[in-house]
Amino acid sequence: MVKKKNTLLRKVIKNTIATMLLITAIFYLYSMYINIEVQPQTAKQTNHYNTIKTMQTVEEVEKNSKTIADVIESVSNCVVGISKLQENGNSIFLNESAAKLGLGTGIIISENGYILTNQHVAGAKYSTCYVTLENGKDYKASVVWSDENLDLAIIKINIKGLQYANLGNSENIRKGETVYAIGNPIGFEFQKTVTAGIISGVNRTIKIEEEKTSYMEDLIQTDATINPGNSGGPLINPQGDVIGINTVKITSAEGIGFAIPINIIKPIIESYKNTGDFEEAYIGVFSYDKEVIPYLDSNANFENGIYVVDANIDGPAYKAGVRQNDVIIQIDGQQLNKMSQLRSYIYTKKPGDEVNLLIQRKGIQIPVKVTLGKKQA
What we know:
CATH superfamily of the domain at 279-374: PDZ domain
Low-confidence stretches: 36-63, 87-100
Order of helices and strands: HEHEEHEEEEEEEEEHEEHEHEEHEEE
Shape: elongated
CATH class of the domain at 279-374: Mainly Beta
Mean pLDDT: 80
Number of strands: 20
Strand order of the largest sheet: 1-2-3-6-5-4
């Protein structure tokens, strides 16, 4: 009896083990089946994800293509019209030209009413001009700073809360980069006209022949269309940063315009924005870049520096020993190769500050210490 019970028990145990093995096998096979079914689905999901990603990329491209319009619209809100006449009858249908009316363009550079433009648009320091804002309102403006050689001026209107432009960096711009010019090419009916182009050249020098011959140096050359009324308007990059102020156009050639690099005026702008004033230091020399020298003195020979074409006899540099035809190689240890570098550095100083020049005269290098004076209006 006991033997039969043991035999029955062994059968039950064997059957139980067999059943468990069968269940395990079935579960394993089912799992394999599920995995086999999941793979195509995963591939399908991956393809779907890639399709979505591709669609997003297209949307991003479309979005970026619209960004330029948004940027230009934003900067255009900071662009103003400038006239020397308060009542100018500015319709082109009245045969009034931009030159006759004194029309030009400016760019707002602070929320409290400072505007940057050309000197030939706004006039000399302490003179008056008139500004038309984006909303069509007119304001009387005073010229607080002006430089004929740079053809730049800063004017001020008594208003706050203005939208103002962001100033970029003109130091490392390169040929081929896209730029946009904004201005009033004929009159206020065509205000804020936008033209596109590229940077065609940098550090350009042009000869200006008016009452006296002079040169404008270190200019940005662009093929963006610049007409007389564009003078004083901004030249911007695709990010909307102002990299230059449009100034002149060669009328004898098509597609050649110029802008003054923004970096040269930055120290003065910051001073007015922060303190409401700028006390300009004066060194009393006017120099040209090396590229201009063949026009002036074919015998001049130097590797680095800027060539002194005029040293004011009453100026600080002349009193310290600097003379015409000298070459200024360094200022306070900084290498000079462009007149704009000297100007920018002097703009960071105050009257009474001392600067150390290294000049070259007939092949001999001479150190000169100059105490800067105060520039008179």
